[in-house]
Amino acid sequence: MTPCADSTVARPAPQPQGAVSAPGLRRRHVMLAATAMACGMSARASVPTELRSIMPSATLSGSIRFTYWGFSVYNASLWVLPGFRPQTFEQHPFALHLEYLRNFTNASITSRTVDEMARQSEPTSERRQLWRQWLEGAFPDVRAGDRLTGVNRPGEGSLFFTNGRQTGMVPDSEFARLFFGIWLSADTPEPAMRRALLSNTNGS
């Protein structure tokens, strides 16, 4: 994926042990800078293999390479169907496709994801624990080159794929809204990433 534009967004300091975590990578204190580079993939790019049977008419909405503190973290792309509207993303089928460029444990990804979902709501401790259980079961540890895909199913929940193989299903629409909202909600902490992922759709 070739970068075609840059934008600098405020990002928090890394975890004390120096590890890079994803997604979100947020801390509340010392703010650093990270760069999100929009990538010029064609809207006619090949649909990921895992989507060809469940979203065969999907087209590329936009893509981005996320980097943090000089490290490339993942390439992200959003695949949508005709009629997709960003303002009501949770009401539409779509897929978020991540190609990881570094190694991460499931525990690291799960912890960051739960924190980012909680930022959008006020979950009980029981609800947070349920999210954690679902995420821990959705995918394994990832290594550079692994592909994770989340599919939004309006009114039903979400599906998760690892390297083209289904590895999880969460039958909860609110979980899906908050999970994908990390990237797509209007108040995402990563507005540059959101703009890149929605670059070929109408609306904002």
Q: Identify the CATH architecture.
A: 3-Layer(bba) Sandwich
Low-confidence segments, ≥5 residues, pLDDT <50? Answer: 1-43
**DSSP strand tally:** 8
Oligomer: single chain
Quickly count the helices: 4
Largest sheet, strands/sense/barrel:
8 strands, antiparallel
Q: Approximately what portion of the residues adopt beta-strand conformation?
A: 25-35%
Q: Give the radius of gyration.
A: 16 Å
What share of the residues lie within helices?
A: 10-25%
Mean pLDDT: 82
Name of the CATH class: Alpha Beta
According to CATH, what is the topology? Chalcone isomerase
- Total domains, how many? 1
Structural class: alpha+beta
* Largest sheet strand order: 1-2-3-4-5-6-7-8
**Shape from CA axes?**
globular
N/C terminus separation = 24 Å
Provide the succession of SSEs.
Answer: EEEEEHHEEEHH
Question: How would you explain this protein's 3D organization?
Answer:
The protein is α+β, with helices and mostly antiparallel strands. The protein has one domain: Chalcone isomerase (3-Layer(bba) Sandwich). About 25% of the residues lie in helices and about 30% in strands. It is built from four helices and eight strands. The chain has an eight-stranded antiparallel sheet, with helices on one face. Helix 1 packs across helix 2 and helix 1 crosses helix 3. The chain is globular and about 40 Å long. The N terminus is likely disordered.
SSE map:
Blueprint lengths: L2 E10 L18 E9 L19 E10 L2 E10 L13 E7 L5 H14 L5 H14 L8 E7 L3 E6 L2 E6 L2 H12 L6 H7 L7
Antiparallel strand pairs: 1-2, 2-3, 3-4, 4-5, 5-6, 6-7, 7-8
Helix pairs in contact: 1-2, 1-3
